[in-house]
Request: fold
Amino acid sequence: MISSLALLLLQGASTLPQPHWPSTFVADYVSDDKHTTGYYASDTSPGVGASRITFEDGSGDHLCSYYHTKTPCEQLTTGGFRYLYFPNLPDCCKCCTYATGSYLCGGPVGPRWMSNATGNLIYEGKEVILGRACHKWGIQGIFPTHMNYYFQDVETGLPCGLDGYNYLRTPDEPADDQYLFKVGSVNLTVPHSTFDVPQLCKAARYCGGKVCAAGPDVRQFV
Ligand SMILES: *[C@@H]1O[C@H](CO)[C@@H](O)[C@H](O)[C@H]1NC(C)=O
Ligand SMILES: *[C@@H]1O[C@H](CO)[C@@H](O)[C@H](O)[C@H]1NC(C)=O
Reply:
């Protein structure tokens, strides 16, 4: 009895779709939760470790909106820092550093996110994202009662999108880190220049305030 049950469970587990996070990709997204569009670029290959998320309007983003609203914003994470860049103002500041590892900034999201190392990755079936069928996984993040989600195209195996629980200032103002990738926009070749640090950002101040660090290792994240 027990051994046949175990075998059944084993067979069940082996047929579960497995998530694959490409080490390098760029995709155009729409975000209902942040009420904006932009692109999401990520390169987590060894020796790079960078990401750039652009927001046509950063007003719906937890970090961008704290500093400027109703203007484009970019979150550039590279070389140990996460910068907030506002190309039209122009303005740039360092939101936090992850070089020293003692500040809760987090580097770019990478394959480790999907590795199920902590056993908290749950397959949740299929969901239609912008018109195509996608597998859905739930991953527990820093808010224990709220899941983060990763979606992957059933047919192509490419990412369909991400949805990380977040809010603007209070939980009454939902503003998930939701990026739904447009069909056909995922490209696995990302030029290195995508992650170039703008001149304005190179000697930029720390952003400070309530959502970013005021200096290296100043832990103010809430
Ligand atoms: C992740 O690991 C847990 C615990 O081992 C397991 O129950 C779960 O099915 C795994 N998730 C996936 C998607 O394989
Ligand atoms: C993917 O990006 C590369 C580099 O920017 C570009 O040369 C190529 O044409 C793109 N491929 C597609 C299918 O858009």
User: Anything to note?
Assistant: The longest helix spans residues 2-14. Helices lie at 2-14, 64-67, 199-202. The longest strand covers residues 121-129.
